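Q: Predict the bound structure with iron/sulfur cluster.
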Amino acid sequence: MKFLDEYRDANAARKLRQLIAGKTTRPWTLMEICGGQTHTIVRYGIDELLPPSIALVHGPGCPVCVTPLELIDKAIAIASQPGVVFCSFGDMLRVPGSRGDLFGVKANGGDVRVVYSPLDALKLAEQHPNRTVVFFAVGFETTAPANAMAVWQARQRRVKNFAVLVSHVLVPPAMNAILSSPTNRVQGFLAAGHVCTVMGYEEYEPLAARFRVPIVVTGFEPLDLLEGIYRCVCLLEEGRHGVENQYTRAVRREGNPHARQLIERVFAIGDRKWRGIGTIPASGYRLRPEFADFDAGRRFAVADLAVAESQECISGLILQGIQKPHECPAFGTRCKPDHPLGATMVSSEGACAAYYHYGRRKAE
Ligand code: SF4
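A: Predicted complex:
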């Protein structure tokens, strides 16, 4: 296979569906932890192709969605300060904080810019030595190498007017939290292919052994997902656990050692709050003390902001696979993409936004 269309071939999809149906003898609940996979599943109706006894639930796989409201407010406060050029990927600009968003800061005269790489933000800092350029470093392990590289380069090139506001979250601790919950119903995971491209899948092996669950590293196209589901169902039906790699065209067990080494040099692991879920121990990256000068949270003395989430939002339950988006009473009525009440509607990768976008309006 070489081209994108081949991963969307209808005949191959039908064969995989038959294989899954032929293998399934009882109910199973599987979770993907990747907004891109959620998007593909809902867009192509993969969940509706499967035997009714297989339930797909959607985990906390959208980094924009799990960025805490307090941090959005902190970004807005920093971006509003005179002399600051605030840089971000485009998807963060429309994410609402408790009182507005970064687009609003821009509309009011703030210097908020969309960049395509943290290295572009670093270049801006070199071009504007009298301004402070802040990059909003949001994401899973996937985007950590580029952010680490920007900080590393800033130190090498002595760019003192560059800083990052870090909100990196890590997948394995979130899976651990889900599996440890007394209300957990997830029996198998589709691990995110892009995260494993960087990190490999060694970290998932102790999880699979401890909780006796199958974890299949899976890509993003429809056939990737169907094959990942098939392999997960095979492991479950045969009473086996462990980690398998469906996404062999991109993922090696050890991941990308150069990228991992760079991450380890720049970031340390610490506790991190996930929007809709709460604090998960050792689930995020923060800058190591030797890079503290590049920490925007430290450089700008913005007080910690306490923000209340909507009382009617059930995104915490959705992110843990306990409920589905259209089971929320506010879904599609009081909560829509242009007026999101909670974590999973704020980004197009969020599960609620995907359900809304692809017309899943009624509860099953
Ligand atoms: S539909 Fe809106 S309010 Fe309901 S769970 Fe999703 S984000 Fe929260």
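A: The pocket of iron/sulfur cluster is lined by residues 310, 312-315, 318, 325, 328, 330-331, 335, 340-342, 344-345, 352 (CB under 6 Å).
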